Structure formats: C-alpha cells, structure tokens
Amino acid sequence: MQIGYPILSTVIFLPIFGALWIFLIRRSSETFIKWTALLISLVTFILSIPLFSSFDKTTAKMQFTETHGWVPSWGIKYALGVDGISVLFVLLSTLLTILCVTVSWNSIKEKTKEFYAALLLIEGSMIGVFCSLDLFLFYIFWEAMLIPMYLLIGVWGGPNRVYAAIKFFLYTLVGSVLMLVGIIVLYINTGQGSERTFDMLQMMTTNYPYNMQLILFWAFFAAFSVKVPMFPVHTWLPDAHTEAPTAGSVILAGILIKMGAYGFLRFNMPLFPEATKAMAPAMMILSVIAIIYGGIICLGQTDLKRLIAYSSVSHMGFVTLGIFALNVQGIQGGILQMINHGIVTGALFLCVGMIYDRTHTRQIEDYGGVATVMPIYAAFFMVFTLASIGLPGTNGFVGEFLIILGGFTASKTLGVLSATGIIIGAAYMLWLYQRVFFLETNPKVQGHPDMNMREILTIVPMILLVLWIGIYPNTFLSFMDASVQNLIERINSVPVNSVSVSGNEKILSLITDTDTVIEVLK
Amino acid sequence: MMNIPFPDLRPVTPEIIMTISATVLLILELIFKNKGVLAFIAVATAAVVLYTIPSSHGQTFGGMFISDTYSTYFKLIFMINLVLTILISLRYIQREKAEYGEYYSLLLFATSGMMLMASAKDLIILYLGLELMALSTYILAGIKRHDIKSNEAAIKYFLLGAFSSALLLYGISLIYGMTTTTDIYKIAASLQNSSTPSLPLLLSMILIAAAFLFKIAAAPFHMWAPDVYEGAPTSITAFMSVGPKAAGFAVIGRVFYIAFQSIQTDWTAILIGVAILTMAVGNILALVQTNIKRMLAYSSIAHAGYMLIGIIPGTQESMSAMMVYMLIYAFMNIGAFAIVILLEKGEELSDYEGLSKSRPLVAALMLIFMFSLTGIPPTAGFIGKFNLFMAAIKAGYTWLVVIAVMFSAMSAYYYLRVVMNMYMKEMKEEAAITPSPSLGLAILITVLMVFVIGIMPSVVIG
Lengths: 522, 462
What we know:
The complex is a heterodimer. By secondary structure, chain A is mainly α. Chain A has helices at 7-24, 30-48, 50-53, 87-103, 112-131, 135-144, 146-156, 161-188, 200-204, 210-227, 236-243, 246-256, 258-271, 273-299, 304-324, 328-359, 370-373, 375-389, 395-410, 412-437, 453-471, 474-492, 498-503, 505-521; strands spanning 63-71, 76-82.
C-alpha cells in the first residue's frame, strides 16, 4: 500500500506540468514535441500502475488518499482518493492518452504544440475528476477540462468543427452550472458555520431531507445526463464525436462521457439515496429509450464516425440502465460496461481515424472491399465490431449480460426491451462491416497501405483488453465488489419514502402492469 | 463670529495627496516634453496614496467624511484600476495621438472623485465626488479631439450623465425636505420610525437609485455604455468599465444599507428586477456584437447584474463577495482591454481571426481572459462568481442564482466567439502589435492575478 510518491497527485499533475513544459518548447521542433508528449503519457501510465497492483480489493474505503488544506475559510480541502468505482477509470485514462498520442503522430500537422499540450491538460483534469474527494475540487477539474476539450474539437476537428465545439461547450456548461448551484446548496446544508465542508465523504454520511434530495438530484442530473449523454440531451454527442479529431473522439467516447455515469455513482446515489430510489424507474425508462432510439438512428447513418457516435448513445443507455437497476449485477455491469465501451468504442474511433488518414472520407458509401486491400486492418476491426455487439468471449458480452440481468431483476419489461437493443446493435454493426469491408472494392480505397507498426502497436493493447475482460472479467470485477456492495447498502439503508412512492405511482404501476402481463403469458 | 475648528486632515490625507498631485501634474505638463515622466509621477502618487490609506481610518469634517475598511477596500480597487490604466495608456495614447498632458491629471482627478464617493458619509460629499469623477471622465472619453466617435462618446456621456446627476440632486433634495439633513446616518435615524414608506420617500429612493444605476450601467440605465465604450479611447474604456462602476457600487452599498434601511424591502424588490433585467440585456445583446469594445461594454453591463446579486441579500458575506468580485473583475476586464490595446488593429471581432497563428502568445492570453470572464475554473472569474453565488444562496436567493448561472452559461457563447475567431478561423493578415514594457507589465500583473486568485482563492477571501 505504501508507495514512495503521492501517486494520485503525480498522475494528475505530471501531465498538466508536462503540458506547460510543451508550451515552452520551440514551435519548429515538432518531433521533439511529439516525443515529449509520448514520454510524459508513458511515464504517467507507468506511475499509475501501482493503482492496479497495490489496490486493496477487500475494502470499500478510499485508498491512496491525500488530504491538504486549501481554502480553509470555505472548508475546501485538496482531498484525493480512489475506490473500486473510480480506480479503473484512472487507469483507462492513462492508457488511452498514450494511444491518443500515437494515433495523432502523423495526422496532426498544424499547431502541434498546442495539440499535445491540450491533450495532456485533458488527461490531467480527467484523472482529477475521478480522484477528487472534495466537491469543489471536483468541480474545478470538471469544468477546467472543458477548455482544452473545446479547443481540441474546434481547432483540429472536421469541417463543421466550430459548430460542434460550441454546441459541446454550451450543453455541458448549462448542465454544469446547475450542478454548481446544487453543490453550493449541499455545502450550506452540511454542517453549521465554520464546520461547513465540501468533503464528499462527510456529506455521504449526512441524511438530507427528501424534498431537498429530490431537487439536488435533478441539479446534479442536469450536469451528468448531458455528459453521459442520456436521451433527450444527447444531441451534442454525434456532432462532437464526428467533428473531433481522432484523439478527441477517443477521449470523448473513452473517458469523458463516462464521467456522467461516474457522477451518478459517486454523487447522486450515495448523497441522495431516497431520491435515487424514487427516480430510478424514470431513469431506467430514459435509458431504455436511449438504447433503442440510439440503435435505430444508427441504422440510418451514412457517416462512419457518426454511426459509432450514435452507437455510444445506445451503449451508454445500457450503462445507465444497469446503474439505476440498483442491484449488484446491474451496477457492476454498468461500471464494467463503461470500461468496455471506453476500450471498444475508443478502439473503433482509432480504427476509423487510421483509415480516414488514408482516404480522407468518412462516408460509408465511399468504402467497400477494404478487407481485400487491408486484411490486417479488417481483422482488427472485426474483433471490435464483435465486441461492440457483445459476442461471448469478448468484453462486451460480460458487461451487457450483467446489465440485462440486473435490469431484468429490477423490471422484466425493461430488461426485455433493453435486450432488443443488442439485436439492433448487431444489425447496424454487421451491416456497417459488410458495407465497408466486403462488397465490390471501391476505387477510393484501392492501393492504400495496410497498417504500419505504429498503428498495430496502438491497437494491440485494446485487443488484449477486449479478450482479457471477455474471458476472465473477474480481474476487473473484483476491484469493484466491495465498493459496489457498500453503495447498495447505503441506498438500501434508507426507507423508501412514502411521498416518493405516491409521486412515482404512475410510472411504477405502468411497469408492473406490463410485468404482470408477461407473467400471465408465461 | 462663528468659530470653525480646523478639521482633522488625517482621514482625508490620501485624497489630498491625490488632488495635489493631479494639480501639480497640470503644471508639470508644461515643463516636460516627455509625458512618460507624468505617468511615472501618477503611478508614484498611487503608490503613496495606497501607503497612506490604511493609516487614515477615522471621521472628519464634522462627520461628513469617513474612512473605514469599507472605503479602504474600494480605494484599493481604485488604485489598482488607476495604475493598470496608466500602464496600458502609456504607449497607446502616443499611438492614438491623444497624448495630452491633462490625460494623467484627469485620471487622478477622476480617481480622487471615486475615493470621495467611497468615503462619503454625507450626500453632499457624495455628490461632490460623483461630479468630480464624472466631469473628468467626460473629458477623458473625448480626449481624442479629432476623432468623431470619441467626440460623440463624450457628448453622449456628458448629456446623459448630467441628466442622472440632476436626478440624484432631486432625490437628495426630497430626502432633505423630509429629514432636514444630508448625513447618511442621521437620515437613517429619522426614517427609522416610518413604518410605511411615504410617497416622497419612495420617489427619492427611486431617483437616487436611478442615478447610481446609471453609473454602474445597469439596465434600464445602460443605454450610454455601448456607445461611450466604443467611442472612447480603449484605455479610458478600461478605466471606465471598472472605476466608476466600483464607485457606484460603493455608494449603493452605503446609501441603501444605511440611509434607506427602513425601506429595505422596497428597494430590494426594485434591485432584484434591475439585476435580472441587467443580466438579460447585457448577455443577450452581447451575443450579436461585432465590435469587441461594444461586446465588452455589454459584458460589463452583465457583470454589473451579477454584482447586484451581491447587494440584494444584504448580508455581510454577500457585500464582501460583491467587493471581491469587483476586484477580480478589475483584473480580468482590464487584462482583456490590454490585449485589445496591444493589437494595432483590434477593435473589430474579425480582427482576431487567425490570431493564434500569427501571435500565439497574445491569443493564449486573450483566451485566458475570455475564459475568466466566462467564469470557468481555474481562473479568478470562477472564484468571483462562486463566492458571490454562494453568499446569495446562503441568504436564500437560490432562484435568483439559478437565473444568474443560466445567463452566465449564455455568456460563454460571446466570449468564446473571440476564442473561436482566434483559434478556429483562417488568418487573413499578420496581426501587428505595439508592445511596450509598461503594457507588458500590465498584462503580466493581470494574467498572474487571474491565475493566483483562481488557484489560491485564500488571497482575496476571508
């Protein structure tokens, strides 16, 4: 457990200071900039490995904690720590950043310096979001990340990048400021006078009145649902994913949108357990809508990146469904599926980026017969396609299975409906694969070289993870056991509020009615 | 014969130094060809004044003038405003051929006016300070004598300003008629027993409020701001966007909380409406501006709206949050204007297209100021808003804060338009800059403060 350095601060601030260092390098020495960025991301990853190897899986307590005073008059502390819910995201962030650096190696030709600096700034603040145990600190990282991400999309993105960037920024900001109001209200109601605190752990032991919980739940929901994104506030995502440069899409799909679901787990559930219970049915219905609606939209897409972007809406629907099922399988599946989605969709965006560097088109109709031109590439893409569908043996299967299990336990109807999402998923992904890789060879893809060593090395770690989680998920599930158990206990420790029951009677009865119909049919 | 004792001058020393220095500058202007000397003297004066302020606490002139922690804090903001304005002016007024010797002298006169306002315990002193400040800024706004826009700005500001002064005087005379005093504390004492406010009292409060709201450019008394900000020399725009606003807030705080304490519910209702309207007008109209000075004018209107939220709850905490916000606003706003000045052609939004390509550092600095004005961490702008909103929520104005944060989110659109032009548009021509050591120093101070306050908020709060 004892490591020679403050591990969390190191992995947060090494990339941030690395970014500042890159700012000082001369603009013309591009190769040096790239190697510096790669080195910093590699060292960060190596330094984050103890989080994996020395993590104590038997406890739900925060680990690797660091606490220092920061703004004493407001009761703000610089408090960091990870538990089973957040630790995997830190590792995923450090890993994906390396891949983002390597995939951008040749495709970013303009303002190289700013690009890599922005990338590292994003890495630092993302990890900060997952490690903060102080709500104020959390909010700082949460918002600070918007600046480099906005630039990443807007400066190095596709033709419609300016629109996509501002849309991303405004959607997120509106949600975030509402959460800010929520945070302040929470702060004022935690402790009295000088004892007031932004300390999350202390807030989690406080029981807030139900009505306040309900309002705060929605305030936090505003920020997190936009990030996830949940139906109906998902419309920024297809634009942002599509227009962002490959590295931006990978970060967005891989980590950034996970912050929303992470927020639900970290804040909404333990802080407002009664409200969570009351709102769970509504959340699950929204999730199922996202699953099915996102899937159907995918079928109609003509743009490669846009299709994968919409598939994220559907996949994140699974994640929130699992989380709000409020049982062990559902939540564990939800967390695992977030990691899976980060790996698989991240990898798919990497793959799309690689072929886009060659053909400079994202239209599906411009492709066809790629399998004959680039066989290695086709093989890699196949693995991720199958993982995205959730084929047994790949990581996607484990996650979706657990989620549907959890969802089914909570409500049979929603469980069944969400399962149709998998069928739709198979339809759009396989159809996509067919149109791009088989059929007649399109002249536009003729004569392009297959993957080079740099690209293969970028993809291989992802393949390994896909198979590892698919075959032996316990390595990763064991990380979250204790924490998830603890979370569920926290939610179940409060009685279901009578007000909440009557308030949600309609939604609940709607679901139970359908459930009885299913029972009868059996 | 009446025996008038000689007043204790210690509390008023800073103002005396400031005024004498301003007068001396007028004479020295005839001697020195190099106006840089005048600027140096002006900065030195500010330093001396800053040094004397803490030791000046007390009352004088028969209780018409008071120097306390409240006024000290505002005087600190005025000094920062003065020094930064001088630093950004030095090279700029040479370039704009507006380097008249009176320039620095008038800046000092305007600042002494503001200091009088912050320290006024009597409505007559208040009016005196207000007029000194206003008359000096009218001239400064029109100091580019051969520029039609500058002339227009000055005459517009003068006409409307004179009108608002008249309103103030009318309000003061009404209250004098009712209470037979102009002393703020005595007014409070004699109004204490009026449980239901009389019509003349309400009228007088509304007239005084209108005059003050004019000074802070709050809607619906904001009409002058965009035109004057656009036409005035940019350095003066920076000066006006902070100084008179801070002075306006200083007198609003003192007059309303003390003199009009008994009718707090009445003026709170008015200020809530004004705050919401101000945020709406500022943020919505800023969206469509194509001139950056006009855009910053509407943005400063919007910021006045946020700061009014600090006045409304009336708690000690919210007042100090408003004052901290003012300080932070001074740094980030003057910083943004400094960048506008740095660019040889920087008044139109389109001048910023592709700036990140030709001047990466300048673009990065502007980006920092824009994000700070939006209120994104880890910049000072966030701390200011956070502090202000927290105080308002503590006092129970959560709904008002929700409105404010929504407008604040909206403001991201127009601030980011500058960033978008700099980073995401193609460069049309290489942007020329006119750097100078003093301007560099001003930018360095402002950008450092934006980050220092953003990361270590303890330096300004508590």
